[in-house]
Structure formats: C-alpha cells, structure tokens
C-alpha cells in the first residue's frame, strides 16, 4: 500500500460523504476536508493543497455538473493535481472532458457503484494519486459497443487490450487478465499505438498510453 | 334541426315544425325581454340613487355584466332558429377565482357586445317580437275564433272590431278565413324570426378573431402541458438521483466494508457477498431507469452528446453524423426522445443489421434522419409510440415523416424550427 494520502472530498449526500471518509480512513488515508458544494471544494483545495481531490459530478447549487466543472477548473489551475471524479453517468462526454485536462495523467472517472468494491476503489484512488489514469470499466464497455474510426482498424484483441489500458492496468496485470505473456501485451500495445498514429517511443510510455486512451474516448 | 331560413324556402314549410319554432322563439323573446327591462330599470335606478353613498357602484358594475348571462341564454335559444346553439365567444380564465374572471370578461369585446344586445332586447326587440306575434298569430287567431266570440257575445258581434257577423255560418266562414290568413302570415312571421335570430347571432356568436385567439390559447396550453410533463420528468429524475441512488451507493459501500470484516469463507461471507452483488445489480438497474426518465447528459452536454450516447446504447449498430450547436431545451428533449423511440423501433421490429443517424442544424431548423436497412412496414397508425412523438414535435411546430414501405427500408425524418443557442 502506498503512503497515506491527504484527500479533499466533495460530495453533497451526507450519508455517502461520511461513508467515504470512514472508508478512506480504514485504508490509512486522511480526508483533510469534506465539503458539500463546488465553491467549498475550491476553497478547501486552496487551503490544504491535498494529494488528491475526490469529487461528485452533480452538486449544489444548480445540481447539474458543478462538481465536474470545479474539477476541470482545478486541473486547469494546477495541472498536476490528481483528481478522481465519482459519477452516476456512463456517458463518455464527462470522462472525455476530464481526461482532456493537463496531460491526461493523474485523473480518474469512476461510477459511484465502484465505491462498493471497496478494495478496488481504494486501489483506483491510489493509482490516480500516483499519476495514473483510471476510466470506469462500464464507460469503457459502452464505448466498445460501437466501432468507430480510427478504432475500426484495431483487431478485437487489440481493442480488448486498449480497454484494459484505459482502465489503468499495467502490462503485467493485462497479461494476467488475458492469460498471455507480458511480451505479447507489449506487442499489442505497440500495434495499437502505431495504428492510432501516436508519436514514436521517445516519449514516456505512460504518456503515449494516455494518448491512446484519449483517442479511444474521443473517437 | 334545419334552420328557419332554409325551412322557409321549403314548400312543406307550413306542415313542419318551423312556424311553431319561430313563434316560440318570439314568445321567448318577450318572456326574456320584459323582465330584463324591469331588471335594467330597477338596477339602474337603484344604482344611480345609491351611488351617491357609493354602495350603488357595485350595482352599476353588475349592470355592465348583465349582458353575460343574457348572452348565454340567448345563444341557447338560437337552436330552434339557426339549427344549433351559438358557441360562446368568451375565453376561459387562465387562473381560478372571481377576480381573474372579472378582469378577463371586462377586457373582452364580446362582453360589451352582449351588453349592447341585452339593452337592445330590453328596449326594442321584445316589444317588436310582441307586435309581430300579435299581427300574425294573434290576428289570425282572433279571426278564426269568431264562433267562440259569437257564442259568448249572444246574437251578433264585430270580428276585429270591423266586420259585423250575426250567424254561425258567417262565423264558420271567418274561421276558414282566419286559418287562411294564418297560413299566409306565418311566412312573414318566420322571416322576421329568422332575421331576428341572425341579428342575435351576429352580436352574440364569436367573431373570427376570437376564434383565432381561442386557437392560440389552446396551442399555448398544449405547450404548457408538455413543459409540465418535462418538468415532472426532471423532478422524478432528481428525486431518484438524490434519494434512492445515493442511499443505495452508501449501502453497497457498507456491504463492501462488511465483506472485508467478515470471515473470508462460511455462510455469513456468502450471505454478505450475495447481498452485496444484489445491491450492485439494483444500482445498475436504477441508473438505467433514471437515464431513461431524463438523461442528465442532455442538460449537461446537449443533444449532440446525448444522441451519440443513444447510438452507443442501441442494440443495432448505428453510424452517426452529428453536427449540432446547443439548441433550446424543449427542442433537444423532444428530438432526443424521438430518436430513442426510432432506434428502439429499429431494434425491435425492423430486423435491421445497421442504422444511420444524421443530425444537423441548418437555416434555422433542426433536421434529424434515422435510416435502417430493415424490413420496413412501420405504421404510425398501429403503435402509439410514433403518434405520440409526432404530437410532441407538433407542439414545437415540428414535423415527423416516416417512409417505410413493406420490404423496407425505413427512413424517419424529423424537423423542428429553432434557433441555435
């Protein structure tokens, strides 16, 4: 387990807010501020400079997408600030807009259902805090149901691998999931990056992986 | 019932009910008009006198509205004359309460036309009605009743104070002459009643502009109804999202934690695991349900994103070409649900393997086409789904066109005039 994280939490439903505070505490992370609306979130981040922001999409006063808007504004101000957004919406517009901030690292978009899978949820929190990218499997699944350019060029296996990359898995984890060798996964990813016309390997590999996910979401 | 004017031209006029309807109409005029005159005079005098101490002013106001009930009664009385009762020219108040009613009535031209008619009826028309009745049915009746007159007078009498008769033979002749006179006079009687009815109709029936105003009102109320439905959907969506959905998330979280605390195996662990999975399933179903009631992506990102999402979810693969600005909320909502219904129909009935969705906004119109390669034969008359959609689009002045020959393919096209935001 990574070191203790200092988290700012924004969630307007009190029951859930308290629950999340308890949940994170149980895994050794401290919620330094738990707030109920977008303005308070911005203020709390300015005050505490947390390791991670965990926020709901829909919040007062308008009960539209204030939480997401606040997250986007925070990412614009501090591109390196890890933000994990909790949502009730599978629609990819939300996730795509979030992943477009900064260089797409240190962000996550999860359905609230995932909170119930306690260990996986905490793992996702830690992954985002350490600069990873996490997209809810359900959102990814929704995307896969439709074949789009340029993804049309990918084989079914490559799409499968890309979906797992989008969920933030490492090559090793993907190899275990698909019961293939890690080298095979690396080859698939190479093919994917090539087919999506992503820049050659002189950049950091994570960066290209993120770009692949973005291509995937924007398509 | 045929109108009096039409019956007059009919050769069998005298044998039908028309002459009696005419006479009845005029007699009714007298019965309404005479008491009306009394009422006018009483209210007018009392109001004028009492207005010195201010309490009379409401009475005078009441006088101004006297035409309304008179108009209502007179429109009903038109039925025997013109064949049907005249419709009311008045509008229905938008708000409940006497004040709203009063304000609306005093502002309507129809109210003042009715008052004019009531004044005319009280001062001119009912005496005229009475005179016409007397000169036709009355005169003929008196002549025809000569035998009765002779019997009551004894040996001789003057019919209509003119002709002296002194035998029952002459009296019988008078009866015949009276009946003949009646047959002739029933024509001017009918003509007068028809003209009188036409005058009443002119003053009391709705004018064309009032018909138009009423149509506009109906259109507006239909739009309000749709807006109310829309608001209700949003409210239900919000309640479910803020209530049940949040609590259920908290519940799955509690169960998730309980799973960590419980022993890894054994009946307790199994029970908790089952409950946890069940709660997770319910959460998925609830999310789909809420999305179906009102997709939040429509409000947050607009029609383009929502249509893209609808295409993502479609059971039949959909190619999309969507190029849209943000549009007014009601337009986005109506168009979205129309496309969802169209895609659902494609998946359910057409047997198509592919569909194509294009959406664009050009020259102030939203234009959406949904085509599939299925078997066709979609009939709006059979399912209420498509008809309901057409109705909903009609509120926004939109149109829905479906071309679906048997054997396919089906092309559905909708257009709504609207500005880009």
Give the helix proportion of chain B (percent range). 55-70%
Principal-axes geometry of chain B comes out as elongated
Order of strands across the widest beta sheet of chain B? 3-4-5-7-6
Overall mean pLDDT of chain B stands at 87
Supply the number of helical segments of chain A: 10
Biggest sheet of chain B, in brief? 5 strands, mixed
Nearest-angstrom radius of gyration of chain B?
38 Å
Envelope shape of chain A: globular
* Weakly predicted, low-confidence segments of chain B: none
Helix/strand order of chain A:
EHEHEHEHEHEHHHHH
Largest interface: A-B, 34 and 39 residues
Tell me how many strands of chain B there are.
Answer: 7
Main beta-sheet annotation of chain A: 6 strands, parallel
Modified residues (4-aspartylphosphate) (chain A): 56
Domain HTH luxR-type (chain A): 147-219
GO biological process, one term (chain A): phosphorelay signal transduction system
Pfam family, one (chain A): Response_reg
Question: If you had to describe this structure to a student in words, what would you say it looks like?
Answer:
Chain A: Pfam families: GerE (PF00196), Response_reg (PF00072). The complex is a heterodimer of chains A (219) and B (421). Chain A has helices at residues 14-26, 38-48, 66-77, 92-99, 118-129, 137-144, 156-166, 171-178, 182-195, 205-218, and strands spanning 6-10, 30-35, 52-56, 83-87, 107-111, 133-135. Chain A is an alpha/beta fold and 219 residues long. Chain A has a six-stranded parallel β-sheet with strand order 2-1-3-4-5-6, sandwiched between helices. In chain A, helix 7 (156-166) crosses helix 10. In chain B, helix 4 (67-77) packs across helix 7 (109-144) and helix 14 (329-350) packs antiparallel against helix 15. Chain B contains 15 helices and seven strands. Chain B is an alpha+beta fold and 421 residues long. Chain B is elongated. In chain B, strand 6 and strand 7 (411-417) form a beta hairpin. The longest helix of chain B has 54 residues, at 208-261. Chain B starts with a helix and ends with a strand. Helix content of chain B is 68%, strand content 10%. The model of chain B has no long low-confidence stretch (mean pLDDT 87). Classes of the chains: A alpha/beta (219), B alpha+beta (421).
